[in-house]
């Protein structure tokens, strides 16, 4: 028995090896940086205010492959002016074979974003610094806590799993 993975390669599926979780591909899906008030904003001596929006989307690609997109939008305002907006959508394709639906849901909601987050953090920091601003380092995010909150909200709304919906977490 064999299974075609998302890259088109055929990998053997052996029941004796048991369940598996694989990272098939990690890539930047979308990236944007805007500094609409540059260069005037560089001279403003106001304390900047930061707003972080975090979102996660899951899409089933096949029987055992999922795309997970971790999207971060960081908006920095200096007074009434927008200093910059950095948007990053970091994605990954993950293979989940031989797992029950609950285990798949947990992995998609916790481990996949944990794998993607260092890439997001690095890219956001590079964009902001390349835009002429001091480096910004995203603080660690508790994806397990966000997943627990998402799970609670889904139960209230009668939804079943991440693969069937597009949950969003805001930090």
TrEMBL record:
One of its GO terms (biological process) is protein folding. GO terms for cellular component: cytoplasm. The keyword Iron-sulfur does not apply. InterPro entries: SecB (IPR003708), SecB-like_sf (IPR035958). It is found in: Cytoplasm. GO terms for molecular function: unfolded protein binding. Keywords: Chaperone, Cytoplasm, Protein transport, Translocation, Transport. The keyword Transport applies. One of the proteins required for the normal export of preproteins out of the cell cytoplasm. It is a molecular chaperone that binds to a subset of precursor proteins, maintaining them in a translocation-competent state. It also specifically binds to its receptor SecA. HAMAP family: SecB. PANTHER family: PROTEIN-EXPORT PROTEIN SECB (PTHR36918:SF1), PTHR36918. Belongs to the SecB family. Homotetramer, a dimer of dimers. One homotetramer interacts with 1 SecA dimer. This is Protein-export protein SecB. The gene is secB.
